[in-house]
Amino acid sequence: MIDKPLVEVSPGIRTWNVVLSSMAVLLITLDTTIANIALPRIQNDLNLTNSQLGWILTSYILFNAIFMPLTGFLADRFGKREVLIGSVIGFVFTSFLCGISQNLEQLVIARALQGASGAFLMPVTQSILLDIHTKATYAKAIGIWSMGIIIGPILGPTIGGYLTEMLSWHWVFLINFPIGVVLVIGLLIVSPHCPKNPDRRIDLKGFLYLGLAIGLLQLMIDRGEGEDWFDSWEIRLEAIFSVMFFCIFLIHTVGRKHPFIQLACFKDANFLAGLVFASVTSIVIYGTSAILPGYLQGVMRYPVIDAGLLMMPRGLGMFFALSVLSRLPVVQNPRPYIAFGFALQAISLWLMTNFNVHIDSAYIAWSTVLQGIGTSFVFMPTNVLMYLTLEPKYQTDAASSAGLIRNLVGGFAISGVFAVFTRDNQFFHAHLVEAITPTTFMAGWPALLPLDSVQGAWVLNMEITRQAAMQSYLNIFTAMQWMSIVIAALLIVTRPKRSKIQALAA
Fold this sequence. Notes:
Elements: H1 11-46, H2 50-67, H3 70-78, H4 80-99, H5 104-117, H6 121-132, H7 135-166, H8 171-174, H9 176-190, H10 204-224, H11 233-253, H12 269-299, H13 304-325, H14 335-352, H15 361-386, H16 395-435, H17 438-444, H18 454-493, H19 500-505
């Protein structure tokens, strides 16, 4: 961020670009939250395992992450405005392909293409805002930009629940079309022409090496549980080659004039710290977003519309927190706000560890509200922190690299929670079955049918499955809770040196 914007535009154009940039990220977050609430219905309709269900999420995130670092090259070569408009058009078209998919293979391929086409939306909008704002106005602009990320979790579960229940899960993807049309028209009118660098070249080898490293790592995580992890030669080979290609990528990148990823970004302490904080909160958000619909619909047995309504309060909490943050001097020292955010996330996850099969819906809603508030207190100050001292020439590459890592971590989190859930669910189910005796059966489930009847045994097994799933969810919430506690504690006890911009702001 600099005292004078890189691109001079009128205040009206600047305002409209903030609004349209917020709509662009809304397109992504709305799609994600809508799709999440429809996952149990997709699983039933397509007869999918938990691992296969995870592919629908991870295929999108994986390709989104791989293609996101291309943002810097494409923006320099063709222009940020052109990349933004093209990305919106591609995202809308691939959303249509998702909507007409009839089986797992079609849906996974369409989701991968959707992830690739939408990969540029967040970094390029963020880069445009950096170009047209000064450091004094950027914090407020990024706050409004973040509204798109906030509104998605508010509207997504409710709209997704309604569309899934009243129409079909296909419509959770088709809904992107009208939003995309309005967005493209607006961008054609007001999006500024930013400086280009037509001489910039693409590092195809770097792209290939990193893509192979990420792809093999994601494949290992997705298939690890089913293949018994490192007892399988397949998993061992995927791990070995993933590490190998990543090392080759680093060797190839160091000292290169036009690298696929600008490693110089990671020399900035504020950027690197912000990246760590953003990655941890990505684990919490992606992880809980992936498993909460299953808990609400599978364990609590809420209809899909009611499950969507119960996930909406998290977005309301994010909205409330963002409105408060916009009035606070975040740019002077973002770290205390980030620490507070992680503390709230830890409290919300502690509340979730007290979930049971009879928990009141108000309790669930309040836990998600607190998580939403904590997420905003991490997300917005982290975005400010990352660009406090970063050189302007690295802003676009830094935004795409940050998006790459956040999405990778999020994708791994989704695969990880599904793998952990499957493992724990099998363990607890077997443990509960072993613990059942005629005495404990009658004491624990007096309302059930006699155990010696087929129907009674079926009902008992369903209840055991429900209880095993419940315990598996609690284990995941506990792990994420301690992760948030550790980060909050580190932020409180460490006192980094004040940056130049922090000193100026003070």
